[in-house]
Amino acid sequence: MSRFPSFLQSLIKAKSYNLPPNHYQLMPRLRCRDYGFECEFIAEDPDVAKVISAYGKHSEEEHGIEYSKESLMQFILRQG
After folding, report:
1. Would the pLDDT of 59 be above 70?
2. Nearest-5° angle of CA 66, CA 71, CA 73?
3. How many domains are there within the chain?
């Protein structure tokens, strides 16, 4: 038994949707707004290390909060 309804199965098999090959992979992203800041900063990149570095630097310089790399990785993992 499939997890998807039959109409979705047919779309998946036919590949009739026009998405880039890596569309299925979620891009790591950290946004200040998601953590209670009134700030529009978003760190997003296919390389999770770059996201962690950019967000960590921004949060320390702009908000005075220093997060460990492990904490930021947990934020990303909890997103889904």
Report:
1. yes
2. 120
3. 1
